[in-house]
Amino acid sequence: MKHTDILYFSKAHTWILLENTTGTIGITAFAQSELGEIVYVDLPAVGDTFEQDEVFGSVEALKTVSDLFMPVSGEVVAINETLVSHPKLVNEKPFKEGWMIKIQITNLDELSNLLSQDEYQNFIH
Q1: Which of 60, 77, 118, 120 is the most buried (most CB within 10 A)?
Q2: What domains can you pick out in the chain, each with its CATH number?
Q3: Cα separation of 32 and 7, whole Å?
Q4: CA-to-CA distance for 55 and 45, rounded, in angstroms?
């Protein structure tokens, strides 16, 4: 993925794509590969608000369930309804159709707590 100037990563293996003050959030390719085949995704409702590092949902794989942690504070403005019937999109296209939620970011300063793509690659290796 080429959007290194607007794509950030958390140490909890979520990514956020920044578009003005809206963020699209999903889990990283590394996270989905570690979990294995995703069979269920539990997402919040539109209008829910979360603080940075708060659990906003979970993903269930064949052998485990993993919490999803909010990379920055914000209000959910959209959820990826397609994941309800096609959770494997998280495995197949984690940075495209496998996105999970979109939020209105309430504190842009929190982006400084996240990692760049290069920093994240160093973190996981």
Answers
A1: 120
A2: 7-115 (2.40.50.100)
A3: 18
A4: 13
